[in-house]
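Input:
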Amino acid sequence: MADDAIRCDACPVLCYIKPGRTGSCDRYANADGQLVRLDPHVVLERAVSRGDTVVPFLEKSREWDGALVSGEETFVTAIGAGTTYPDYKPAPFIISSEVAGVDMVTVVTEGIFSYCGVKLKIDTDRHLGAECSTILAQGEAVGHVTTSEYGSQMLSLGGVRHLTGGSRHEGTATCDTLLNLCNGKVVELKIENGATVIVQAEEAPIVDGVQEERMRVGCGSATIGMFAKQWFGKVDEVVVVDDHITGVFSEHQAGKLLGVPESGIAMKGRRSTPGRYFRVAEPGTSWGGTNIDDPLSILGPFDREVAKPGLRLLMVSTTGEHYAYFELDDALHPVEKDLPAALRESVARIRENCEPALCTVLFMGGAGGSLRAGVTENPVKLTHSVRDALTRVTCGGAPVYVWPGGGITIMADVSRMPENAFGYVPTPALVAPIEFTLKMSDYATLGGYMDHVRPLSSINRDEESRRRLAARPDNPWPLASEKNER
Amino acid sequence: MNHRAQIRLLPDGRRLHMQDGPIDVILEAFGAPSEIEVAYRAAAACFGGVLDELCGELEFLRRPACKDAALPSGAIARRMLAAVRPYASHTFVTPMAAVAGAVAEDLLDAMISAAKLSRAYVNDGGDIALHLQTGERFVVGLVERPDQASLFGTTTIESCDPIRGIATSGWRGRSFSLGIADAVTVLAGTAAMADAAATVVANAVDLPGHPRIGRVRACDLAPDSDLGERLVTQSVGELAPGEIGDALEAGGRIAEALCGSGLIRAAALNLQGETRVIGAGWSQLVEISVCDRSMVHA
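Output:
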């Protein structure tokens, strides 16, 4: 039974593990009734890259030489750097450190972004609200529903119009919502004439009180396309049950290309294009998001002219959660049998390809003229330098995507930034860290504040006020050269 | 040595990482290289038997501690029971509340009885046992949320301080908590004492019946949890400043009582960015040195 806990025998603790949970070690889990091994990780020691390289125990016992980290091992982020808004002064920290013999400069500032917002991706197939619907937080308009993407709904929050273009309350609610989302906190959003969603970066969305678990692998038709080759020869007919589009292997383009013969199957629902059916059943919480518990209830009788006794039929849902295997008897009635080993793998693979549903938060903001003036006397030169890839932009050490075109408009995944990296000013506007890293010589060329450049060692000296964090292993090192990213 | 245990030096070549089932330990010894090697070998030899020894008495260790219970046979199990006994008549607690600290102590003992070390620590998933020779000290970082690697302060422990154990407990950690603290860090005489106390104090940081706190029966999450049908915290929504204060106050009262009775020396309670520090002399012990956001928020 899919609901049952399983006994893990990996160690003598012998945990009973419920589906979707891990054992007390956090290393073994129950994935739909199967005991699976998760990636190894070290609690609290995030400094060590996850699943760190194995060093043979005591084979070459090295004594700690007492050396402190060298310059290029430390990167100063802009978090807590403060800002010199309106930025006619040089940025608070302009730091030099030597990397591979080349003097690098990092200009560190906290930017005040009144032109900023959040792009929110919510992994769900549920209907959250119509496109362009207003999104409310604390009763104020803070954004709108934008496009649906594959298995996800995109929301656009913030922007200058909500931050400073509306009422005071609207601005404050918007700023608060953006701040909380960017700092990884829980936020409740109400979509006009739609759902209420509880979101948090890197956590599963909760839509109208129901937590999303996993994304489906694709619609029923897409699933046929993805697995057709793996089924070919092992089964005569496959129906992928889906509330949206149910797929039928022998009729689907993918089956046709492989030369799968007609099976004589008769589907209920409305045929869209060959092998694709709408509304085989009503929406629900059972097979593939439909309301059916008996998969045969969406089939009519097999065509006596075409179907043959012994025909092998697999029915499976888009998450692989539900499946059943049948063979036709002499009267062409499907009789349920055990799933053959040859098909088990493909069902498991459907499950394996259903990723956990998450909310992901991208901060988006533009480094305006005045912020750039904190870096150089001639702000447009900084833009050009970023364009020419001479200057690397990071947000709290996290990589950013710089939009093509004019200005320096960036997007950054807030979950890759240190916690509480964002602040706000009552303008209202968000305060976000932003760092520009470039070669010392390039900095001089673009009119940098050379007399304000401080060596990294001078920053380390006031240790008290600095928060030292381990670098995230999944972020490229901001000071690394492009070819030698660590 | 059992075949499951993984023992290896971390890439820095200094620290030893040992893992077996749910036990995950990082330790480091300081002294002459030959002594460090002896200490690490002793720790590794001791570690191989730890999990089997504990599991042999798991049923007993998962039952509520009571004042006149028979003594378990294993040395670690005895440390666990001794650490939770003081709480047995006041609150629900099982010896499992001190398992990590007791394991850390046991491994530390194995090292310092085998080798001459100036300092050593054994960090068992955040519960830490310390060894300090006269005149030595450790600087320890404090984490606000156990699930995120970021320090909110540091504390320096000198050899003359009556502190050899540090433990942190909270609902975001690996173990279930009955309370809502993000993290409660306790300094105490031994790691097992700190571990038991951190669990008890973290359980007390709470707002019973609050609608934004998600609670689930422990047995619904892990059928064999020692917490049985007790409700464990699974989510904590944003709380009003007054509510945060109330919850910290509830935990703070317990921590103060424990300080008064000498069971712990100090505690730092964390909830949604607010910190309450309990314990005389803690102001000298702990330096809360976050980057100051107040200017930005002004």
